[in-house]
Amino acid sequence: MLEIGSIKEVEIIDLNHTGQGVAKVDNFIVFVNDAIAGDTVKVKITDKKKNYATGRLISIIKPSEFRVDAPCCHFDKCGGCQLMHMDYEEQLKYKRNRIISEFRRAKVSFDELIINNTIGMEEPYRYRNKTAFSVRSKNNEVKIGPYEQGSYNTVDISSCIIQSEEADNAVNAFKNLMRKYNIKAYDKKTKRGIVKNIVIRNNRKNELMLIMVTAAESFQDKHSLVEELISLVPSITTVVQNINNKNSNLIMGTKNIILHGEGILIDVIDDLVFTISPETFFQINPIQTEKLYRTAIEYAGIGKNDICFDIYCGIGTISLMAAKRAKKVYGVEIVEQSIINAKENAKNNNIVNAEFYAGKAEIIVPKLYKQNIKADIVIVDPPRKGCEKEVIDTIINMAPKKVVYVSCNPSTLARDIKLLEEGGFKLMKVQPVDMFSWSVHVESVVLLSHKKADSFINVKMEYDDDIYRAPDRVTYKLIQEYIENKYNFKVHTAYIAEVKRSLGLPMYDAPNAVEELKHPYKPAPEYKVEAIKEALKHFNVI
């Protein structure tokens, strides 16, 4: 019987969406922090719910073959990265499998679907062009860094290996100047103090924007701090003070004051230049962003006569890339400053066929459609919560020939794709991209095409049994029986389906009726994959 406080030796069989190890004890799923698939560990059960339990890692009895030493000394406390103890190539597989798992849970059709391997980084370090750190005081000492795992306690750091060295220098200089000028960190309990957070943004030239978030506009030695800061760190080209007087966990407020420079950065994606303001969204990994957006444009296949919608367009990054190929592009974004930047970016890049609207996508997009402005191709790049239902409904009613969905959340992606499938679209292919190395997050580009056809032809297929044994005669049951008789182990129907899909085989055996693996999903072990392939060869399927 599984009880709170009991100590168990378990094998970790999978990772969940938060990066916790997954084990089974007494028919209970147990989630374990800091464990990875393949580990054998000793855990202490700390909590028990109706359907699952959580455990604290006590010791590693046998490490997974994919376990590595974390390259960051703050990994055991910092909540920014969850997978630094896992081999990088294995992380890429995990991220692809996250998408597969969410698709299965949402009952998305896998018929003829291509899910490519995750596009990784050659050097997955120093890639972030934006970091936000909390500022706190403890025992009269200033602490600046990310939050601890599962709390709002600040981890004091001097270096972060996923941000630039210039950003490290800026953070340390700011911390020392706060001490020098006795500028207090804000305390949420007492509601006293000044500095809440600092945000560092950098471009490809390693020019920095430093945003100090304060509870009040005026404080002693503000200008002295800024003057000394830019002399100590010459790569800081602009300093902005953001006022956030709310006693909440929101990082930034709505008011900005430029203290040095122009209050913006200029950066490049592909051959386009973009203006970045303090509050505007811009992908945090420039190297992978180019791969992501080029894939999106490739999937869209935009022609010179196409009308394109870019919904949740931000500062117009994808919009302007699309506009170079399309007849007209309409971009929609809720953040007004982003739309201001998007219009500036269009002008600066000499693009005249892009039009931008500020407002809620669920209001603007249906409004455009009612004005008889219809898209041939729709690109959506929503926040983590996914698309608003009104947006999905409008896309379905508009029935564009293609939808390209750029997603940072496999769960809401699967939900929205299921709705689009029910509305007449077919899922064609998926390209995962590692935008957030060492974390559990994965970005992906998905192509859907509308199922409507302009014409139909009837084709009668005949097979010569001496040359080709029709796959519909080779059932999942037949493959299972063959493998069990030859290898003395069983294989799940979902594993057979997974192998067939990976080989690009037609899914004659009713793929949507194949029994799904119970959550959490674990990909087929390599020895079972090889056994399934051998069985398919035996039956002349491959």
SSE topology sketch:
Elements: E1 7-11, E2 14-15, E3 21-25, E4 28-32, E5 40-48, E6 52-62, H1 88-105, E7 114-115, E8 130-138, E9 141-145, H2 165-180, E10 195-202, E11 208-214, H3 222-232, E12 236-243, E13 255-260, E14 265-269, E15 272-276, H4 286-300, E16 307-311, H5 317-323, E17 328-333, H6 336-348, E18 354-358, H7 361-370, E19 377-380, H8 389-398, E20 402-407, H9 410-422, E21 425-433, E22 443-450, H10 476-487, H11 493-502, H12 526-538
Parallel strand pairs: 4-6, 7-21, 11-12, 16-17, 16-19, 17-18, 19-20
Antiparallel strand pairs: 1-5, 2-3, 3-4, 5-6, 8-9, 8-10, 10-11, 12-13, 14-15, 20-22, 21-22
Tell me what you see in this structure.
This protein is α/β, with parallel strands linked by helices and 542 residues long. It has helices at residues 88-105, 165-180, 222-232, 286-300, 317-323, 336-348, 361-370, 389-398, 410-422, 476-487, 493-502, 526-538; strands at 7-11, 14-15, 21-25, 28-32, 40-48, 52-62, 114-115, 130-138, 141-145, 195-202, 208-214, 236-243, 255-260, 265-269, 272-276, 307-311, 328-333, 354-358, 377-380, 402-407, 425-433, 443-450. The strands form 4 sheets. An 8-stranded mixed sheet has the order 7-21-22-20-19-16-17-18, with helices on both faces. It has a 6-stranded mixed sheet with strand order 1-5-6-4-3-2, with no helix packed on it. It has a 6-stranded mixed sheet with strand order 9-8-10-11-12-13, with helices on one face. Helix 7 packs parallel to helix 8 (389-398). The longest helix has 18 residues, at 88-105. It is globular, with a radius of gyration of 26 Å. Residues 459-472 and 508-521 have low confidence and may be disordered.
